[in-house]
Automatic annotation (TrEMBL), chains A, B:
Organism phylogeny: Bacteria, Bacillati, Bacillota, Bacilli, Bacillales
Protein name: Xanthine phosphoribosyltransferase
The keyword Transport appears for this protein: no
HAMAP family in alphabetical order: XPRTase
Pfam families: Pribosyltran
Subunit structure: Homodimer.
Length: 198, 198
């Protein structure tokens, strides 16, 4: 998605070979017009999947997911991060390990909002090693619903999440695919290295 | 806002005289079409305030805030809840006490995304005793920006938040104002008690 790649080049900050900061338009400050374009694009890419529900994870997944839900005319459920598994009655839960923060969060969705007839589109802001997506898949599976696809705003293709999910048989659509953050530069998959305009 | 009141009556669950659960359309499962109507309504009510930025708090404020930002064509910043004030460099922070959960959270916004020229609309899903709104006001004030108004999806008017904020001189616009949850019934301000259709 050209508009998103341009925005990443313009406003993204490469903090290391692993970390791209996009908190000026995606995960702290949010650009609603860009979110709308992102929602439109996901809706187009997954138009033929018969999606009945979108599942994402708080907090940064919510804005792109709700815009996608608007275009697809389906409800959005956001999984909550919880400290523990106490009070888990009626909840579908999964553990998600974050390698960057080195913490394991429990995530949960009320069983009221997923059922076995649902065809679910999972949306998230970033895909790195795929642990968050796996957690959401695990939750959807517990409900008996089907994961019809995974929509990612920014994929760090140099980490193994996308390949792992595709090997498991899932359709992954990422709107920006970053092949490298080396030397402080964002390089998109299939493109030559370009300098990051900061 | 009639549409919202109808939805609360249809899908809200009164758990006690103090607690209304709306997680089927607002704060766990989200109805994107309703969020769009909410955004349109806030945008209309605050059209003359010269708003340059919307500030909300994760996670349930994000959906209505982003839709409002879409209609007003301004960026949205969501405050993050943090466990501690370590690593607070470059952050505007405030403490928010939750009486229902009996915990105090630190909330924070990067100082990069608020400046003294901003006219800020604060958006949140619920207003009860007003502690979250006060925390957001405190953060906006630290940046030198002006709070131009406070937009609330559901106000529990039988708690003292709205009155307190208005006494401090803030314009508060709540799309649904609940005067009572007694006897398992939702009563809106200015209306007679009506049974909750569950």
């Amino acid at each position: 998605m050209k508009l998103l790649e341009q925005r990443i080049k313009k406003d993204g900050k490469v903090l290391s070979n692993q970390v791209l900061k996009v908190d000026s338009f995606l995960n702290h400050q949010v650009d609603p017009q860009l979110m709308m374009e992102i929602g439109k694009e996901f809706s187009k890419r997954f138009a033929d999947e018969g999606i009945t529900k979108i599942v994402t994870i708080e907090s940064s997944g919510i804005a792109p997911a709700v815009m996608t839900g608007l275009y697809m005319n389906v409800p959005v459920v956001f999984a909550r991060k919880r400290k523990s598994l106490t009070l888990s009655e009626g909840l579908l839960t999964a553990s998600v390990h974050s390698f960057t923060k080195n913490v394991t969060n429990e995530i949960s969705v009320s069983q009221n909002y997923l059922n076995k007839e649902d065809k679910v589109l999972i949306i998230d802001d970033f895909l790195a090693n795929g642990q968050a997506a796996l957690g959401l898949i695990h939750i959807v599976q517990q409900s008996g619903a089907q994961v019809a696809g995974i929509g990612i705003v920014i994929e760090k293709s140099f980490q193994d999440g996308a390949e792992m999910l595709e090997k498991l048989g899932y359709r992954v659509e990422s709107l920006a695919r970053i092949s490298s953050l080396e030397n402080g530069k964002v390089t998109f998959k299939g493109q030559k290295a370009e300098e990051l305009v900061s």
